[in-house]
Amino acid sequence: MAAIRFVNVSRTFPGAERPAVDNCSLEVADGTFVVLLGPSGCGKTTLLKMVNRLYEPTSGQIELDGVDIRSLPTTTLRRQIGYVIQQVGLFPHMTVAQNIAVVPQLVGWTRERIAARVDELLTLVELPPAEYCARYPAQLSGGQQQRVGLARALAAEPKLMLMDEPFGAIDAITRTALQDEMIRIQRKLRKTILFVTHDVEEALRLADKIVIMQRGRIVQYDTPFHILTRPANQFISTLVGADDMVRQLSLLPVTAAMAALPAGYRRNGEPTVGKDDDLRQALSLLLRSGAPALIVLDGEAAVGTLTLENIRSKTSA
Q1: Distance between CA 81 and CA 317 in Å, rounded?
Q2: What's the Cα-to-Cα distance from 247 to each of 17, 203, 250, 280, 314, rounded to whole Å?
Q3: What is the pLDDT of residues 222-269, one digit of tens each?
Q4: Do the beta carbons of residue 235 and residue 76 sit within 8 Å?
């Protein structure tokens, strides 16, 4: 069953010449990270906000785990959904621990369970509880505030996470670090996530699948690699830079192009790359080191070899 299902959903704001969201149908599988991507005004944030009923559809239906969300009281619905926005929205008069505890308190968790959950989540977002529980938002950097915002959204173990440009107001270095954290956390938790961004690199880096929107309509819904290699039209090709081979390499693991180790191979100081690294990283290392080949490692074990010719054959396939 799809975790979220949109059926012919539209939303027209009063006085608008055209719908902000126009007859969109979409299914999001349980545990997938789906990014809504497109230029400003394309409808991606409006589509997201209809899921937790900050906006109501003009027409169509949205289902959460097969249940029409309009059949649920708004408070019941929103307690099943974690929500993270660009402005973070931490309560300034509350400590970090109190901010994270807001929803668990509302749903009646015990004090002991809440304290354990706060410690668990701060550890998950790599903010040591002993150091950060008693701090106030004003004592945190922007990146730290966003980590607390993410922990708060996860606090009551929601079925679904909605994230609206959560890293948009953060400097590039911190943004990359938070993306790394998001990837790590998603690998561990496998939440169903809808994530809005206008940043193509961010979408390609984070998404299992990408929804590309234009003028309120969904124009393509596919994996990052297929969107880059098989864009549905010229608008999408231009938006994502489909002719950028280096960008395509960033979406392929080295295992997609590696060759088997030679018979009787013994390591002899060759440069190495992890099996989960991407071909863009591997190409950079090959060019930087001047080595004829890289050894691909799974942990400490050598599992393959990778050359420029391996990469070339993959990208020309």
Answers
A1: 42
A2: 37, 12, 5, 8, 14
A3: 999 889 888 999 999 999 988 888 788 888 888 888 999 988 888 888
A4: no
C-beta neighbour count of 59 within 10 angstroms: 13
Contacts with 202 (C-beta within 8 Å, 6 or more apart), sequence order:
35, 167, 175, 179
Residue among 284, 290, 296 nearest 258 (CA): 296
What mean pLDDT comes out for the span 201-206?
90
CA distance 68 to 177: 37
Q: Which amino acid is at 134?
A: A
Residue 45 tokens read as 């944030």
- Evaluate the CA torsion angle 301, 307, 308, 309 in order and state its sign: negative
Sign, CA dihedral 187-75-65-116, equals: positive
H runs (alpha helix) in 21-141: 44-51, 74-78, 96-100, 102-106, 111-124, 129-132
Query: Which residues face 217 on adjacent strands?
Result: 214
pLDDT recorded at residue 89: 81
Extract the tokens encoding 16: 């608008």
Query: For residues 156 and 275, what is the distance between their CA atoms, to the nearest angstrom?
Result: 35
Rounded CA separation 251/249 (Å): 5
The answer to whether the CB of 120 falls within 8 A of the CB of 155 is no
Distance separating alpha carbons of residues 206 and 229, to the nearest angstrom = 17
How many residues in total does the chain contain? 317
